């Protein structure tokens, strides 16, 4: 998509991943709803930039989301987005003991590339100018009611924006040196391979816990369909020197799937920490990985990013007509409070429990899995899995109390 760019927009959204797409979409939806309301009778103008086509395969992701969570965020889940429904999780301990947690209909493995494409089309239908293969290279400080966004790519130039939403993913993004969060906290390496020829139940995701597989993180097999699986791992930042991702991935494949044919291997990073830094300052808003919105232990970030993008759009719409920063503060605060209520508070509790969780010994996982494996599958609940692991090492109960108490 290559809409011609104007020199001035009300909103510039940088990045058309889940966060940026939901931000652009929600501004479009607000335009459609207010039909000639707050912007002197005109819809707000929106530019959505991405340095690549956001549907380029493979998207660096295992593509699992909660079905209910996705349903609440998008206008409609297109059937074509669903690769497979997920009916549960199989946890595998270091000695290979498998514990099945059944939860029919709980999740979806999605075709993110197609979802990105359809959401971009919808944002465009609602008025956004989509300009992909265009990289934002700088965002100026806020002066005279505007920020300047410099971009490069097949064309280059500068946009004057009344509001900027940075949804550019993990790492140091825009607004460096300003009082705003960045997506560079507790960044962990992740690798995944597309693998053909394995046998697995297509409606279960498999998670391998323990240092034997992926120190400080976990390894996974997420089906893409009945022929191709996404096999990967994420390593805790603290362990990434002693367990370099490539080598750990090779060791994992050799241990668990010896002799399989790996089609392609891809990398990515996941910002898995929690920070209290502001999500907005001077008409610059952050959403998704660019704001460290990922669940620190499951490393899920798709719905978190979508929610972040939606809330950023709502807050941005609320401040765009205000001039004094002091008048905008309550809306920045409300953005943070809504984010915390949706995911942030849970992420903070999980973040506090992450260090003790990553210290759990392989024998503890084996012991817990051994006792859970004796329970009939229909009686295995998520809290039973969690508590059984804790009971195997009582000292962890105190350390991980933030996850048990609200
Ligand atoms: C291997 C791996 C597996 C994962 N598996 C899961 C999973 O199963 N479930 C889950 O919920 N989460 C998963 N995650 C996390 C999830 O992918 C991210 O949290 C999510 O994609 C964040 O969305 P986002 O929109 O914030 O960022 P991104 O998806 O990273 O999107 C950012 C976009 O911004 C663009 N961009 C970057 N810089 C610029 C620039 N300067 N100018 C213009 N455009 C720019 C990028 O091209 C990109 O399209 C996984 C992550 C990895 C690495």
What's the short story on this structure?
The protein has helices at 18-34, 67-73, 112-125, 245-256, 302-319, 325-358, 362-373, 382-392, 395-399, 401-404; strands spanning 8-14, 46-50, 64-66, 82-92, 98-110, 129-132, 134-139, 147-153, 157-166, 187-196, 204-208, 218-223, 228-234, 261-271, 280-281, 284-286. With 406 residues, the chain is α/β, with parallel strands linked by helices.
Secondary-structure topology with pairs:
Elements: E1 8-14, H1 18-34, E2 46-50, E3 64-66, H2 67-73, E4 82-92, E5 98-110, H3 112-125, E6 129-132, E7 134-139, E8 147-153, E9 157-166, E10 187-196, E11 204-208, E12 218-223, E13 228-234, H4 245-256, E14 261-271, E15 280-281, E16 284-286, H5 302-319, H6 325-358, H7 362-373, H8 382-392, H9 395-399, H10 401-404
Parallel strand pairs: 1-2, 1-9, 2-6, 4-11, 9-16
Antiparallel strand pairs: 3-5, 4-5, 7-8, 8-9, 10-13, 10-14, 11-12, 12-13, 15-16
């Amino acid at each position: 998509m290559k809409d011609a760019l104007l020199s001035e927009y009300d909103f510039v959204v940088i990045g058309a991943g889940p966060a940026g797409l939901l931000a652009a979409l929600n501004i479009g939806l607000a335009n459609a709803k207010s039909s000639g309301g707050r912007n002197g009778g005109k819809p707000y103008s929106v530019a959505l930039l991405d340095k690549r086509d956001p549907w380029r395969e493979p998207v660096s992701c295992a593509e699992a989301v909660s079905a209910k969570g996705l349903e609440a965020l998008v206008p409609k889940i297109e059937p074509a987005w669903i690769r497979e429904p997920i009916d549960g999780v199989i946890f595998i301990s270091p000695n290979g003991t498998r514990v099945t947690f059944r939860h029919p209909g709980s999740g979806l493995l999605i075709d993110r590339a197609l979802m990105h494409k359809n959401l971009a089309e919808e944002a465009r239908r609602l008025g956004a100018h989509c300009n992909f293969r265009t990289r934002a290279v700088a965002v100026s400080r806020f002066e005279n009611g505007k920020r300047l966004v410099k971009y490069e790519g097949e064309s280059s130039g500068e946009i004057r924006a009344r509001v900027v939403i940075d949804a550019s993913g993990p790492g140091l993004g825009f607004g460096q040196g300003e009082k705003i969060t960045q997506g560079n906290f507790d960044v962990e390496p992740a690798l995944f391979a597309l693998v053909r020829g394995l046998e697995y139940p297509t409606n279960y995701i498999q998670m391998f816990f323990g240092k034997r597989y992926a120190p400080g993180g976990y390894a996974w097999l997420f089906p893409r369909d009945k022929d191709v699986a996404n096999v990967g791992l994420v390593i805790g930042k603290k362990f990434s020197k002693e367990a370099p991702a490539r080598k750990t991935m090779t060791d994992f494949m050799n241990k668990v799937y010896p002799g399989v044919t790996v089609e392609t291997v891809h990398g990515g990073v996941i910002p898995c920490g929690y920070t209290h830094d502001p999500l907005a300052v001077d008409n610059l808003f952050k959403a998704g990985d660019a704001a460290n919105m990922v669940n620190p232990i499951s490393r899920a970030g798709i719905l978190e990013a979508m929610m972040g993008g939606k809330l950023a759009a709502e807050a941005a719409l609320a401040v765009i007509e205000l001039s004094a920063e002091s008048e905008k503060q309550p809306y920045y605060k409300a953005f943070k409070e809504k984010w915390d209520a949706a995911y942030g508070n849970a992420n903070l509790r999980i973040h506090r429990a992450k260090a003790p969780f990553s210290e759990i010994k392989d024998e503890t996982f084996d012991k817990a899995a051994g006792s859970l494996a004796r329970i009939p599958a229909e009686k295995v609940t998520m809290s039973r899995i969690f508590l059984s692991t804790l009971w195997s090492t009582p000292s962890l109960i105190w350390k991980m109390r933030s996850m048990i108490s609200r």
